[in-house]
User: Fold this.
Amino acid sequence: MQPILLKTDVLFFVLLAAAAVYAWHARRHEHLRAPWRQVARQPLGMAAAVVLAAYVLIALLDSLHFRAAPAAAGQGGGAYSRDINSVFDVLVAPLRDGVERTYSAPFAAEAYAKEIVELADGSNSRAYPRLEHGGAHLRDPASERGPDIAARLIGGILIGVALALAVGAAVVTACARKAHAPWTATALAMLRGDGQVPWRAILGTVLVLALLLGCGIELAPYYHVFGTDQVGNDVLYQALKSIRTGLLIGTLTTLVMLPFAIVLGLVAGYFGGWVDDAIQYLYTTLSSIPGVLLVAASALMLEIYMSRHADSYASLAARADLRLLALCLILGVTTWTGLCRYLRGEALKLRAVDFIEAARAFGVSHGKILTRHILPNIMHIVMISIVLDFSGLVLAEAVLTYIDIGVDPSMDSWGNMINGARLELAREPVVWWSLCAAFVLMFALVLAANIFADAVRDAFDPRLRDME
Amino acid sequence: MSETLLEVDDLAVQFGRDDAPVRAVDGLSFTVAAGETVVLVGESGSGKSMAAMAITRLLPSTARITRGAVRLDGEDLFKLPEYRMRDVRGAAVGMIFQEPQSSLNPVMTIGAQIGETLARHRGLRGAALRARIVELLDAVGIGEAASRLDQFPHQFSGGMKQRVMIAIALAADPRLLIADEPTTALDVTIQAQVLDLIKAEQKRRGMGILFITHDLAVAYQIADRVLVMRHGKLVESGTRDAFYGNPQHAYSRQLFDALPSWEKRLREGHAPASAAAEPLLTVRDLAIEFPIRRGLFKRKVGAVRAVDGVSLAIEQGRTLAVVGESGCGKTTMGKGILRLTPLAGGAVEFGGIDLATLDAAAMRRQRAQLQIVFQDPVASMNPRMIVGDIIKEGMLAQGVGGNAAERERRVAELLTQVGLEAEHARRYPHEFSGGQRQRICIARALAVEPRLIVCDEPTSALDVSVQAQILALLRDLQERLGLSYLFVTHNIGVVAYIAHHVAVMKAGRIVEQGPVDEVLHRPQHEYTRQLLAAVPTIGNAA
Assistant:
């Protein structure tokens, strides 16, 4: 087994490391701890944070890539080989390997279209063929499917409840140990909703997620929960793999965008004069060009680049990964203008504040003033902007893929699923489950991100804080 | 003076939760009769503004009236529903607020804003409305009222804006006028005019006035009765003469003692020494301009001469006070001497070197010797740095103190020198009061061992008692360390208390300068005499 580090994986880990460094830095400074503590006290915000954490966990597991030992049997499976797997792939192997021939409805045991089927006695008849993996354990689907699903649901619920209780017990133990209080007293206090942190909301969300996980564990190996797509791949698997794509676009774009926005915005606002003019002309021009055109141009340039360096991008995964990286880069380069404008305004205001003049009266250099005085006083805007832009970027990916300038078609993404739904919805009978799965997961992520962004903004906006 | 107009009975206003309440007003009771002016005196945090807001039920949503009653002409205001209260506000009770800049809507003409009140309470429309507005503007002393009523607030000066506010408050002929520090943000001469206007209107209409202020001298000018508030409670009340002649409560006496004045300075034994000292800073023909830019390419078409040929000298270990009204250029000059704004001409000789000719790097080396303390203690410090780092910043930039341990020691030493404690270095600025913050700013300025400190109205934003402490601290530091101060202020009392020399500035020029005794007691220039005459003093009611 050979670990593989794709370019986007590297950046994702860098981002997680940066978040960890920020968390460590924030712990030591009261002026950063206080707003985050306030975020931690919002029940809705914390529930959204739990959902986001679940998504991040899936994306993280999906970013640990490796190449399985070449001589191993039973590798790959399906019409084309996937050399590079991830830890997530290993965990959901039944979903990955359960490939059918073509469309099948959710929880179906038969394919969606009639085909010529060879019966046991040798004659042919036109009927719905049984699926290879979905519902394959049922002898008589029509009668057994209902009770089977019900039984598995109950099993799934029990697993989910057990998981949630285990997590809850661990949390209570940690809190009891920190507060040096007896275990039952802490548990009761949490259940009653005492204390600042909304544990009931958090553990309630954990319960819901655990139930979904439990039902998934029980049902997914035996049925295609969201059906299959045109080439027979499980739709739920595709939708879950798309999480990494969506998350990467939301976060890596920010990583690319922030340096431009912060540096250019602060320099323009602080120095004024011709520097300000130059940067203003730059971002005004850039924001006047339709972003879609820039993305399309960069996609084309990337195609040319990859065809020139065909040998280093031989595998499908590497090509798709490079295209994702390029998409993040170009989105970052085209979206920094909004934040830059805002930061320029703030820097203009801060430039005239007394403590900046005091620093100048000490002969502190401009660079030190920018990093020590101005930057910490605008970070709240950056924080708010990051969480607000995240959901917009996830949605933007769907749109861009819809017009064929987004991620590579071979990469699982919600955009690709929605793009495919175009023809699927025009089909007779309608194939709706791909679109549904993509919609449900994307909606959950964007909703959670928006709710969390609201909580962060309420905590970090200094004007709202003064009204407390 | 007749029947009771306003009766406040055991009023209590509270913020916060019931288990940790902040009692802004705690059991306040007083009356105001028609034709009487009652002045509510107190420092910041005493609850005087909250009491005024409670009377008109305009408290912020986080505040609650927990007990008490307010009766206007016998009618209990707290029992009225909101729609009845709207009839009371404006028609029965008029209010004037402190900041004319933010009290007027910048996008409405002043005629429209005065007309709002008239339309609501008197039902006037059209020509009758305009006529009444012109009448009101004339009454408050705004000339050419007929043409000015269609102008916007930004086209009026601060004093004019406050007159417009008074016109709005008086538009519907209220029986009670509540004035919440209406002259605090105004210059001394404008303040005198506005106070005269308020008194004249009261005499004409027979209104009762509840006047809120922290300035005892202003209170003397206008009061019939004085009430002193502290921490939400009433500590003393009395008629004006009784109160000013013989204050009873220890806190009131403390307030009087804290007033800076020439007499207080002599009492404390710090009469200015007559011997001249070595000159430290000499300014010759200093000029600072602000360009007026017009056109597509923002070409400079002219300049506003904020400082227009100023010459002055500061001696070692002495204080030069620069007085003038707002807009005269005194702050700009102070910052110009430190080269914080670019100079358009002139020489600034400091220790034998002309600072005006130095380039940026050379000026940087001189900066340790000239420091500045600002007016606003809140905006003077980075809210995201701890106090220790704030004080160390200058030391690091100027290379004072060899290593980290040495700097830590110096920070502790400075904090104790300004009256704080060494362990305060680990706290954030917002944990300190205004006076303490100003002490930290002074410590920061002292950290680099300056010889001259420009004090830009350092006590204007502070309460009277805190101001007295800071002034005493500054004088003490001057005597111990031999510092010189360029003290910019508009408060004549402070000048009398702390200055050795005075320069009077008007429109960017110095009209008179000399030893403090000469300028304050034997002023030569007409403008100086006007300025000194407009200052409200206790014992000299206009």
User: Anything to note?
Assistant: Chain A has a mean pLDDT of 86. Chain A touches chain B at residues 29-31, 353-355, 357-365, 368, 372-373, 376-377, 467-468 (CB under 8 Å). Chain A has 17 helices and five strands.
